[in-house]
Write a structure and sequence with these properties.
The chain is an alpha+beta fold and 733 residues long. 17% of the residues are buried. About 2% of the residues have low confidence. Helix content is 51%, strand content 11%. It has 6 domains: 67 residues; 87 residues; 77 residues, no CATH class; 159 residues, Nucleotidyltransferase, domain 5; 80 residues, OB fold (Dihydrolipoamide Acetyltransferase, E2P), CATH 2.40.50; 85 residues, no CATH class.
């Protein structure tokens, strides 16, 4: 049974109906004159009966919320009496819902002011003058005007035929279409709609019918073809029934923004400055000095917003926006959240470092997921439609809007404007500079936007939501905030100074900080002054140092302090130099080279090095010189008196060879004793196997060394070297 508007309500019912906290309701009761209507039994606390208050004695805003609540209940109960018909379009349902809500509103108005015809006529006048509000704007737009006769007719329809008869589809045909009787044709046309939606959604029945005839000519189906009118009607009904599915398959962006189901609402916070959302978008206006982007932020709880016109969206512009929001709204709360996307201007080291320094928690949305930041996206849409569309220089929110604006000018002028900026400004009536446009945006925010009711705030304005929250903001010193958000990165102290933006800064403290990494913050009001934070021991123990442009030290009177710091540094350096020289003398560094030679000689004592036999160097010049020394002339044909018989020379060489072999034998024995590394042992075994048979143990040792590729390659090289050396010795012998 539908509930009529009660005459009285309790405090508990008010908190449930309005969404206002119990504390706020009690405060409003103490401030106003609410008339008690008696007490009712409280089952949870039998000893404390609840007091009810007359609805007519409540403040106007609360009274409207109570009336709207019970009106919605009546509408929902009446509308759910019968199951929904599938052949009704969205437009039909909106029309029926609007008529039903008008009947409910008219009945409530007559209950308060009387049931006569004049009362109903007064209600019609109020509705026609937009003084009667329905549940949503879409429902309100479905019925623009009402009259007494219409209301009487709608009431009779509601009583005799039910709520759905108010939708207007009284005599809709229910016969089966020729296409529906041929399921294979319906399936083919359904696939056609999904494959070529740009043809089907324009209801190009004749073009589709030609394709249908082509498919039927293959002889696979044997369809009975429909007429163009029947096909057009079927397409209209099919597209209406498949609207969401078709949107998902053909326009996923529009589906995400309009039809994507939300399983939970986004948390707006418990108080102001709990949740901020930041984003950017191209501006829909053109200025005399170019086209700009908008970077904006919104406090979700109150819907208050701030935005800036910027040439390009970078981390610097985003930090300027955050600083403006902190200056106007106060610092975000202790466990607050700042939502951003994954753009490079929000994930930069400068942004993340500044947020960390200020204690701000940044939460990034998934890429291409605008619905994860719905409040700032809605703000952009509101600003475009409520402000930009009325400003000079509006270029359209999309291609269709821009085309409509350009079509107001002749084609030849549009063509000429492509390469002429002045003509383009004339087409779009560009008059404002960037500064003037920013001033208009700020004025619109302060005077229009923040004083416009929001459905998401239960009909309150952002200013009302902030005032009723009784929130006490925490605002830092403006200059300190600007300084901490104007960092220019890290620098290394060298020679008592750092360089940034072609300016050299110095400070007395820098004399003792050579090689230290410091974070620089330029004074936004005077670039000759800056501040350095020594981060060697973390932010908790960081020391802030005021630094000055080195060209300004005389005017700032810093020369004596810098001179004292430098003298103290030189004093410490001299003292350190004296101590180091004394220690060097104590450690005897002057004789270190002698002791090093002695230690090296002692280590090599008793070690015999194996030296390979040198190979005789020969060429034509050396051979001629040697022959001249031996025979007296390089061109001598007959032996000189000093020449000896060849047999004597051969005998002498044999004796020398025997002597060399006898001398090499103890050397080989000594070499075997001093071989220490595995590589030397393997190399010696490889050379040995050319002269004598190896033992089984020696063969296994070589095979083990050849297990890996590197060892196998080394053995191969050593074997080739041994063969080469043996061949060369044999040739010389």
């Amino acid at each position: 049974m539908s509930q009529a508007l009660p005459k009285a309500v309790s405090i508990k019912e008010l908190t449930e109906i309005t969404g206002i906290s119990k504390t706020s309701v009690l405060r409003r009761k103490s401030e106003g004159k609410w008339v008690e209507a008696g007490q009712i039994k409280n089952h949870s606390k039998p000893c404390r009966p609840a007091t009810k208050y007359l609805v007519k004695s409540l403040p106007g805003d609360i009274q409207q919320l109570v009336e709207a609540h019970y009106k919605k209940q009546r509408i929902a109960e009446e509308w759910d009496k019968k199951p929904a018909r599938r052949d009704l379009t969205n437009k039909d349902r909106l029309r029926g819902q609007a008529r039903h809500e008008i009947l409910v509103a008219a009945a409530s108005y007559q209950e308060e002011h009387g049931s006569g015809r004049k009362t109903l006529e007064a209600f019609c006048n109020l509705y026609n003058n937009d003084q009667v509000k329905l549940s949503t704007k879409a429902v309100q737009a479905a019925v623009k005007k009402v009259s007494i006769n219409r209301i009487y007719r709608w009431r009779n329809t509601l009583e005799t035929k039910g709520p759905e008869a108010l939708c207007g589809a009284y005599y809709k045909a229910t016969y089966e279409n020729i296409i529906d009787r041929q399921q294979s044709m319906a399936d083919w046309l359904g696939s056609y709609v999904y494959r070529w939606p740009h043809i089907a959604t324009q209801y190009k029945a004749r073009a589709i019918l030609d394709d249908l005839k082509t498919e039927n000519a293959s002889g696979k189906h044997g369809w009975q073809l429909p007429s163009a009118t029947t096909l057009r009607r079927w397409l209209r009904n099919y597209i209406a029934e498949q609207e969401m599915k078709l949107l998902y398959s053909t326009d996923i962006d529009r589906y995400n923004s309009a039809e994507r189901p939300n399983f939970a609402t986004h948390w707006p916070g418990n108080q102001p400055n709990d949740v901020w959302e930041l984003d950017g978008t191209p501006a829909d206006i053109m200025c005399t000095d170019g086209r700009f982007k908008i970077t904006a932020g919104i406090d979700v709880y109150t819907r208050r917003a701030r935005c800036l016109l910027v040439p390009r969206q970078t981390s610097h512009e985003n930090l300027v926006l955050v600083r403006k929001m902190i200056t106007d709204f106060g610092m975000p709360n202790e466990r607050s959240v700042i939502k951003t996307d994954n753009g490079s201007d929000y994930v930069s080291i400068r942004i993340t470092t500044t947020f960390h320094r200020l204690g701000l928690l940044q939460v990034r949305s998934a890429p291409y997921s605008g619905w994860e930041k719905p409040y700032i996206e809605r703000f952009f849409k509101t600003m475009s439609r409520d402000l930009f569309e009325r400003m000079p220089g509006y270029i359209g929110h999309n291609v269709a809007d821009r085309k409509k604006i350009e079509n107001q000018v002749a084609f030849d002028k549009r063509l000429a404007a492509k390469n002429n900026e002045d003509l383009e400004h004339q087409i779009f009536r560009v008059k404002l500079t960037r500064e003037e446009a920013q001033a208009h945006i700020d004025a619109w925010l302060a005077n229009v936007y923040e004083h416009t009711a929001h459905d998401g705030l239960n009909g309150k304005t952002p200013a009302q939501a902030y005032a009723e929250s009784r929130y006490q903001p925490s605002k830092p010193n403006a200059l300190a905030l600007a300084l901490l958000m104007n960092d220019t990165g890290m620098a290394v102290v060298k020679a008592g100074r750092v360089r940034r933006n072609n300016i050299i800064y110095t400070a007395p403290e820098f004399m003792q900080m050579r090689g230290a990494n410091v974070e620089l913050f330029i004074d936004p009001e005077n670039p000759n002054h800056a501040y350095a934070i020594d981060t060697r021991y973390g932010y908790e123990n960081a020391e802030v140092i005021r630094i000055t442009n080195i060209e300004e030290v005389h005017r700032e009177g810093l020369v004596p302090a810098l001179s004292r710091a430098r003298k103290e540094l030189h004093k410490q350096l001299r003292e350190n130099d004296r101590k180091m020289k004394q220690k060097a003398k104590e450690f005897g560094f002057d004789t270190l080279y002698q002791r090093r030679i002695e230690v090296a000689a002692a280590m090599r004592e008793g070690v015999v090095e194996f030296e390979r036999k040198a190979v005789k160097h020969e060429n034509d010049l050396f051979n001629a010189a040697e022959k001249a020394l031996q025979f007296g002339s390089s061109n001598a044909i007959a032996p000189t008196p000093q020449a000896r018989d060849m047999r004597d020379v051969i005998d002498e060489l044999d004796r020398e060879k025997a002597a060399i072999e006898a001398a090499e034998k103890p050397i080989k024995e000594a070499r075997r004793r001093i071989i220490r590394s595995e590589q030397d042992i393997i190399q010696a075994l490889v050379a040995k196997e050319l002269d004598e048979q190896l033992t089984d143990e020696e063969k296994r040792r070589i095979a083990k060394y050849e297990l890996d590729d590197w060892g196998r390659l080394q053995v191969k090289v050593w074997r080739e070297e041994a063969i080469y050396e043996r061949t060369k010795r044999a040739k010389n012998d």
